[in-house]
Amino acid sequence: MGEHRQRYSEKFKEETVKFAQEQRQKKNMTDIADELQVPLSSLHEWMKHYREFENEPVVTGDRVKQLEKELEIKDKKIAETEEELAIVKKAVHIFSRPRP
Nearest Cα to 12, choosing from 41, 30, 34, 37? Predict the structure, then answer.
């Protein structure tokens, strides 16, 4: 026979997403879906549709430090790349001059 599909109200979906956002630091999405007895795919769809970033937990200090370190490394790589590009540009300019 046909499968009975569960229908969820908009309010339920919004509250579920809010709960999931609050629990993301402690649990993964699979555990949250199991706990709430909703399909994981539905939870992912609801997150795309109803997610509000002001409900996201505050980032920990360790995470901020990690991101700052990553940013510093990327900034150094960008500076090095720009320096290498400047050298290549000078070389192209020098070697593209007509020889006497």
Answer: 37
